[in-house]
Amino acid sequence: MPYPSTGDSKNGGSSSTAVLTLAALGVVFGDIGTSPLYAFREAFTSSHGLALNEANVLATLSLIFWALTFIVSLKYVTIVLRFDNSGEGGILAVLALATRMTREQPRLAKTVVMLGIFGASLFYGDAVITPAISVLSAIEGLSVSTPAFEKWIVPITIAVLIGLFSIQKRGTGAVGKLFGPVMVIWFSAIAALGAASIAQTPAVLAALDPRHALNFMLHSPGITFLVLGAVFLAVTGAEALYADMGHFGPNPIRIAWFALAFPALITSYFGQGALVLRDPAALKNPFYLLAPEDLLLPLVVLATAATVIASQATISGAFSLTQQASRLGYLPRIPTRHTSEMARGQIYIPQVNWTLLVLVALLVLGFGTSGAMASAYGIAVSGTMVLTTALVAVIMLRISTKVGLILFAALSVVGVLEAVFFAANSAKIAHGGWFPLLCGCAIFVMLTTWKRAQTVLASHEAARRIPVESFPAMCDSTIARVPGTAIYLSSQYGFIPTVLLHNLKHNKVLHERIVFLTIVDEDVPRIADRERTEVQVIERGRMYQVALHYGFMEDPDVPRGMKLLERHGLKFEPMETTFFLGKTTIARAAKPGLFTWRRELFRWMQRNSPAAAESFKLLPERVIELGTRVSI
Fold first, then answer.
1. Same structural domain for residues 411 and 548?
2. Which of 60, 171, 270, 551 fits as disulfide partner to 526, beta carbons 3.0 to 4.6 Å?
3. Residues 415, 302 within the same domain
4. What is the mean pLDDT of residues 273-291?
């Protein structure tokens, strides 16, 4: 999104808290802001068959209110937004922070990594379901207006989704400025409709009393457990509060939540409850039936716009998560298009975009209605929330301050509640919940397979390391020197890259000037240009060791990085500089074993990965790639 980051604000930029708050409304709250379209209805119309009566309506509304209060207001807005990784939020950002804080305890660090990666994997399941259920639930309003539209709901939904994914390559800069105002109109509209309904049945406000929820839980624990799966739909999207913190900062998000989003959501839910108490037949679609008939079509249009915004935020989150996973070494380097010169976080990844579209379209065609899809929604989100809570708890325990211990106690209470929600959502597995879990598990296997294979290859290469300081002595006078500069990419700083040894073995020549270049992926989001470069002189004028440092939310740009080396006295003529890249592959297994499939999965991922030259933005005509094969 083309909004100033928190860093811009802190550095005296023109952005004000009001502007950032408006922007946050348009980006952060799209998902949770469209939950009223289906969340309350699902508590009564899903498979558990909760009877529609006053006691159950008040208990459901009470559960929704206190779930939003504890999970969103207390956990995310009050506690979790305090914990960032250099201003960035999200499960991979907090994973990097927790990993740094547990390095001295290898077993704990390994557990932390597994939790974080699995939570990130579950997010992809959420990224598939959110656009599908959000847009589908909005389009379903057409059938409330005119039953003749019933057969066109799925085709129209597919068309809207195709349009949404097709414009991703253009970036959201052109429409980004509209997101905030549209969501202000959306929240104002649902609040107004809800308030008008509450005014007709003010007794529904009794649901604010937690005793309605507690009595329901005590007298009907089995039914409560099933109802919680539907209630949880009201808090889906809360993870975006944390994931998008780096764009806006914690304060604008807090202001937007407490000043508008939270009151509007509660008013809408309570308004729907008041409506079904007056007219049980309205349970068919209580959200749209809150509106007068003349305003129904405009409300459908507004809801569609709001759900597109909600979907946009999730799709952008999938792009960001993929970029972070690639930078942290859990995926191959994937070329990323930056769609805005103003916003570093506004990116587009074609492979992710079109894969998501195919999966989302299949999901809409397979389930057909938002009600059926609701059974698949929630389990991935609740799993990610539980894992985020666990990672933040680890960080809190490492800090061990008085305030930290108090917050840890509060977070522990929320963690228990989230665990209950996760268990309740587990009941949905047989009714569609298997889909996001299957997506999450598939992504988890791919992430861990790539990381494990890279670790094995690094260990193999480490056994053959030669320090760069010893290389000049190895270069006797019989080796021919050719004009120009050779830049050898090395995975390990301070050691001779294998690709140089292969080149010397086969071509028996060296360039007049040699640079060993290492791309260093840091576990912080971004690196300032003044801190990006590192140069070690091995043999002045002839041989150098260079490192370019990049954060896990940055896309390495080697040509630009090489220009930064001019302040170290190193200048490079593009047409006189050749880049040598090495590619190490794992050979097929001599004898098939239990985990041979992981070897083949890595080989498949490597074959389908973009070329390193493309990832580093190198000119193809100035690149030479030499490969080696490792047998393990």
1. no
2. 551
3. yes
4. 93
539 and 430 co-located in one domain: no
What CA–CA distance (Å, rounded) separates 79 from 72? 10
How high is the pLDDT of residue 277? 95
> Could you list the residue range(s) of the whole structural domain that residue 612 is in?
467-630
Q: Using CA atoms, how far apart are residues 539 and 558, in angstroms rounded to an integer?
A: 23
CATH number of the domain enclosing 246: 1.20.1740.10
In this structure, which long-range contacts are made by residues 53-57, counting pairs with CB atoms below 8 Å and at least 24 apart in sequence? 54/277, 55/212, 55/216, 56/216, 57/204, 57/207, 57/273, 57/276, 57/277
Question: Is the CB of residue 189 less than 8 Å from the CB of residue 271?
Answer: no
Contacts of 450 (CB under 8 A, 6+ apart): 329, 330, 331, 332, 602, 605
Question: What residue type is 532 in one-letter code?
Answer: R
State which of 429, 452, 475 marks the end of a domain.
452
pLDDT band for position 58 (cuts 50, 70, 90):
very high
Do 487 and 448 lie in one domain? The reply is no
Residue 6 has pLDDT above 50, yes or no: no
Query: Which pLDDT score is estimated for 485?
Result: 93
In-domain check, residue 568: yes
Closest CA to 625 of 346, 610, 120: 610
Contact 462, 496 (CB under 8 A): no
Q: In the chain, pLDDT over 70 holds for what percent of residues?
A: 92
- Whether residue 457 is contained in a domain is answered as no
Confirm whether 238 is domain-assigned: yes
